[in-house]
Amino acid sequence: MSEETEVLTVEGLAKLLGRTEASIREGIRRGVPWLPKSFKMGNRHCWLKEDVRKFLRAYRDGEHMEKKRGRTRQYPPNLKTVA
Fold first, then answer.
1. What are phi and psi of 16, to 5 degrees?
2. Which tens digits make up the pLDDT trace of 2-57?
3. Domain encompassing residue 19
4. Looking at the domain assignment, is residue 12 inside a domain?
5. Is 1 helix (H, G, I), strand (E, B) or coil?
């Protein structure tokens, strides 16, 4: 019988993301962008399930990527625009 909680610990997040606990702990230590923002309860890192789901949806939709910098592209003229 598994108990459903709204708070995930390193073990739960590792299962949800399909990673090892060691990679999650190393990611926390390094501050990697592929981990959702965590908070601490006592000495444990925790995540809310709802926040993790929002983070994964944003990552899936490409919202985590920075906007490209630079000028907007100017397309070369064609015969219709030259005449």
1. -65, -40
2. 457 899 999 999 999 999 999 999 999 999 988 999 999 999 999 999 999 999 99
3. 7-60
4. yes
5. coil
